[in-house]
């Protein structure tokens, strides 16, 4: 693709004498004399984004210009997140052309200023190729580039930061300040607190030290107060402590104790959901915690030996602990609350290119960036599906040559950005400019593997992922060596040259030792081998421009910008997707990768169509017509009946890790039934397999967010919930209670109510069990034979059957009140003067007639008399006489309160059932699979987020819970 002053790069064209300075840029996608913008069809669209829960408009900009092949989601995300200028003002960007030009022209200008290009013609090719790749969603820079580059504000390009703190109050206060400024800018930071002396050591004055756990409280409160980037999401941060720190046990237990507090407060009636009013009283919730273990500790665990905890000031062993018991405490804490994660110190530093300048002690919040303290990393990710080729004969291949050329282009741009970038602190700016850490990565791996007929948890899938990762990193360092010949190696290279070249040999050796599996990965391995040979040759001659080249980041918002089906290294979420339509509305579609996979596996077109139809109906491939059972694994996803095993995720991480400069942002999800021993096994295997970091999440281990990934199970053991503590060494027995219908007797008491809502008249008959509450509802509208009347008939039958199967009335009330559609408006009921729809009125009326005061009051439903009482006395509470009557009514047994006797199933708490209408792929998967996803709701638009690496991503508005 290029050549430098030291000679042409392999596969490039020669353009001039060897004496010319700067890179020669070869065209990849563009043609001379034709701008990339002129090769696509553009159209105008209106972007109106609402919070579906209350109908409020979150963002509106009309008439924005995008290529016609961009999806609604991608257009919405880019317009709302990345266009600069006040909405409604002439300065506001309104076209993707303006956004790309703002960024790309800044990069070109900086590249020309700092001598990156051999000629103005090369600079123009660079600009056009960069614009083409961004326009066609081949890759994307990380969000700070789109936020800041080419604007009047500081041009921060990095999303990932690592800070440092020493054992002094001045340094600790600097930590609070620096972290706060990074949060304010919308990014995240991590640091290691192990330099701070423990609470078991003395101060110079003779008193006891506070210890790092104490200082974590102040930093946690600061992070919870400063809304990241001025948004409503909390800040992203990572706190690391070495395993030999004397306070490590207190560090491990911090979140466990707080989770116990959350449960107690929740049971006492406080709002402890994520974002709830009372969750802020809980400490240590704004950070991810990780313990940094070393090989000495892990070998002590393996051998059942003692392990020494060392004083921070002298390095002396001040306490010995049972290594296996300490490791067990880590696993128990992770079982209970998902923290701490684990980082493998010796593995991390074994792959460190700059050890003479300091050890790697910490990571960014998502754990993919690991390098020197007080440094930063800017990220960019490639869309792997853009490099999958199908020839006329139906054969597939990965376009390794074009992939390598795009990697060279992107690495060049990323390095240029450091020349003009601004940084949040002077120390971070100095370190980043001296070591020039980059983080190229990719997205859509899960989709690529499925499309090529590879199971995510398979030798073939891991081989292809490893080959692509090796080619990406090898090509990146090759380009870094070429850049070093043009603009010089990074400042810290001379001091670290031996170590840097040693790590390059380690990567090359890992590439040579990797297994080749099939016709897809073998050519990619060959290209990667050639790239690593160039790295060793050119690096030994020129040095390297960058101390770090690659990581695997979450690719949250930018993944949506590129219309990726999967983020980072993650597998596909589910086989059926939620898709927004240009004209408004939405639809569910079977993943486009499914037909590709079936075709790759050799199925004829008619069978492909039959399998796709089965998936559309059932959400999975089990018993799909004509599909061989041995091919089921190709369609395994993160959620569903056939979900990927936790160790399958670990093995995929291990396949990519030897070919990455940094690490991988990923959380290994485990089922609620996972044991402490299984978590120990995963943490131990992560070390054995050569991972740099690992975190797990056991489903439903946290109270502070809506979590439940399986159908409702009633689990009791000796009268206590199993969630109260891990049952070590035991197998938990799960009993599934199936609902049993309880029919009403022939004669049943009932109430008939006539009503009018917005001019539409109707009648409701509500029949009850003689002693057991509501059991049947009939609804009749005045115009017989109309569509509305027919739908209300069907609706009332469905509700009646649900009530007889044990669904509590309060569940229906919570779901159907406030639902908006016509007819709506004034009613003739004095207790319900306004209704947003007929079903809103019906369930408010039923609540008033059949629910006790406390239950409907919690739902905000009161009678006219109660509202009048509130105006007069300030309280909705009924009189003593009314209380006595209600007490008598509630003393009668209800059939939903005794599942053991009746066989009915207890209802989930409000908010737990899967949504009745999907607003994202996660919610659609919940509906298809009959379960709830392990994900919080988006603060901005209310939709269920989905996992992206170790963060969460909202498909509706692009918000993330992490640092990107």
From TrEMBL:
GO terms for molecular function: ribonucleoside-diphosphate reductase activity, thioredoxin disulfide as acceptor. The keyword Cell cycle does not apply. This is Vitamin B12-dependent ribonucleotide reductase. It comes from the Bacteria. Its EC number is 1.17.4.1. It catalyses: a 2'-deoxyribonucleoside 5'-diphosphate + [thioredoxin]-disulfide + H2O = a ribonucleoside 5'-diphosphate + [thioredoxin]-dithiol. Residues 1-11 have a biased composition (Low complexity). Residues 158-697 form the Ribonucleotide reductase large subunit C-terminal domain. It comes from Streptomyces zingiberis. The lineage of its organism: Bacteria, Bacillati, Actinomycetota, Actinomycetes, Kitasatosporales. Residues 1-25, 711-731, 869-922 are annotated as: Disordered.
